[in-house]
Amino acid sequence: MRRPLFSSLLLPLFAATSCLLPAAQALGEDLTFGSCELALAHVHFDDVGKDASKLAQRCESRDRILSLYLCLKVYGAEGVGIPGLSHENETCQAWRDTPLPPFDIVDAYSNDDIAQLRHIGLDEQQNGAHVDEVIMLSETLYRAAFDTLDAVEYVYYNHYIYGMAMIIFWIVVVAMGVLSRLIAAIGDAQRSMVKPSTGISRPFHAFSVWLKRHVTIPATFGYRCAQNLGWCTIPPRIQSLTLLAFIAMNVFLSLYGYRFTDNNLYFGSFERQIWRYGSDRTGIISFFNFPVIWLFGMRNNVVIWLTGWDFGSYNNFHRWVARVATLQAVLHSVGYTILIIKEGGVDYFAWWWTQLFFWTGEIATVLMCLILGFSVYWLRRKHYETFLMLHIVLSIFVLLTMLGHVSIFKGQYDMLAWIPAMIWVLDRVIRMSRTLAFNPRFWNTWASATYDPSSNMIRLVVPHSSSFYTPQPGTYYYLHVLGDTKFWESHPFTMAYSTGSRRRSSKDLSEDTPLMENQNDISLASEADAKDPAMTFLIRPYDSFTSRLRNAAGAQWPAPAPLRVLVEGPYGHTQPFHNFDNLLFLVGGSGIVVPLAYLHALVASPRTKSIRIVWASRERGFAEDVAKHDLGPLVGCDKVSVTICITHREDFADDALSALPEAALVRYGRPDVPREVEDAVRAARAGSLAVVACGPARMADDARRAVVDSLGHTEAKVDYFEESFTW
């Protein structure tokens, strides 16, 4: 296909006008020189031959050099243009071995002499006039060139600054999270020294309650949060407000900060200026979002350690920043497509597909849209491994194509692709270090797995005697089964508890450790248990990974099956439940692991007055198994009360569960979550209450709304915690 004639102008223009900060700084230093150069760009000086190149004219055409000097003399102040001329002289010496004549050669031109020269206007310049004499630029042409460069400097400087604003926004958000965490830690440390009835604390308490009731705890629209809405989920209100601010900032900065000129020598009409500036703005902002997308999507995320927010919060941010960046990439690509087709039609658009930077950019946009399409909630939940494989492969190709897309800028934007790549590599290195910290001989960790069909639950016991750290409650681990047909797959599971005496020097490597160390040793080890230290996981089998794990665990039932596993962790945080007087655990199914993880420490804590566990279990056998092996005598403790709700109708016939301690109350049907929260708030009186939900999405949403409804109607200090893992 023959290259269109006007592509010779537009191609270098992509690079020339898109070099953001350095170009803007250069123009700002010597705008007069740039204006004279731009105005002379399409005038051909024939004294060096009609076929002479642009560089030959700039360095060897005496008529052009004198015309440039006269432009600087007439339209610039004294000394203006020296930096530009110095750079021009270096270029001519390097490439043509010809220095420029001294500037004082135009001293011989008087004002009358200049007035007699041929003055080139806009029409002649745009038509590519051929001259064989020294010329003078008309004031209209010079002003048009000056305004063009002034607008380009302003707009492209804003492109860069507004792109940086994306990163600054999230730095501010993380800083607020760190500050909030520090304030909470200081408040917990001083709580025993400050009476809540003092005049100073009351306003802060009232503001804290208002903030919890209207901002930090509620679902975005009042109820649905854990439950999906079609093929998507809605984050909590505080996250939604943060994302709304981010989206609003992106929209505003995509529309604001432009300067349009009547006679733009680069882009011509207002319409072309709008398409060009808008397309560049959205593309640049989209690319600046890349480091944030990759950072928030990694397991080993330094901002998780700083703020204490869970992986699910940053995963929500990851998805929404990616959605915004993808939409901006689409606008960028569509804008350039329209601009090119308007300029030269479909053939011209087809020619651009022969340019590396163009077709890689278009493909990057298509790949980003595919990633978005393959990241819907349904696919993540039902076919996670397929989602993960597509996510990784397509993301790699996005970075590669983006490197090709920005190659025209000679490395100026390469770091926006390399930073995500480095984040990804660093995440993998930290994953390996976590695995080695658990067991340096990572290939030789043997777990004991059992599966009882009556309970429909896998009990996995993993020894941790070789671990460099002490397992902490609330943490979760990624497990690989090395003997599995798909040994590369891993899934996260929350530790139910740790058993066995273990008193050698060790370190807690959970994600809240880097910011603040827990001074109270929340050890789950039973003093009377002389077994080797081991972690217990209670896993509900579904399909894919857990179904294969069920088959392997049940192969030798009732005897346990030995499984060789690879353990990566810990992840997550130990929640400050020991700071509350009262705790209400609302859990369903395998969510019982959450109270199990904290139960020993809370019972031993002098601060804790009451622990109420409301557990909905589908299978009677599962409830009996946990009561026998895990809850044990703790249920009979004065602090602990347990209500077990059996939800499977076929188990309603039995009047009681023989394997349960007498202190446990057995009910049939779903628990009345709002009523449980209301009763717990009433019983807490003026003390503190933590409501902890871990179970079906509906249970979590009911608990969240019930806590919000109670705030402002009680003297108790009520907090809500939702323990869940979301992809």
Automatic annotation (TrEMBL):
Annotated Gene Ontology cellular component terms: plasma membrane
One Pfam family, short name: FAD_binding_8
GO biological process, one term: intracellular iron ion homeostasis
Secretion signal span: 1-26
Gene Ontology MF annotations: ferric-chelate reductase activity
Keyword Aminoacyl-tRNA synthetase among record annotations: no
Record's keyword terms, sorted: Electron transport, Glycoprotein, Ion transport, Membrane, Oxidoreductase, Signal, Transmembrane, Transmembrane helix, Transport
Membrane-crossing segments per the record: 160-184, 241-258, 284-308, 320-341, 356-379, 386-409
Cell location: Membrane
Superkingdom, natural source: Eukaryota
Bilayer disposition of the protein: Multi-pass membrane protein
Principal place of residence: membrane
CDD domains linked: NOX_Duox_like_FAD_NADP
Domain called FAD-binding FR-type: residue spans: 422-577
The family this protein is said to belong to: Belongs to the ferric reductase (FRE) family.
Name by which UniProt lists this protein: FAD-binding FR-type domain-containing protein
Organism: Verticillium dahliae
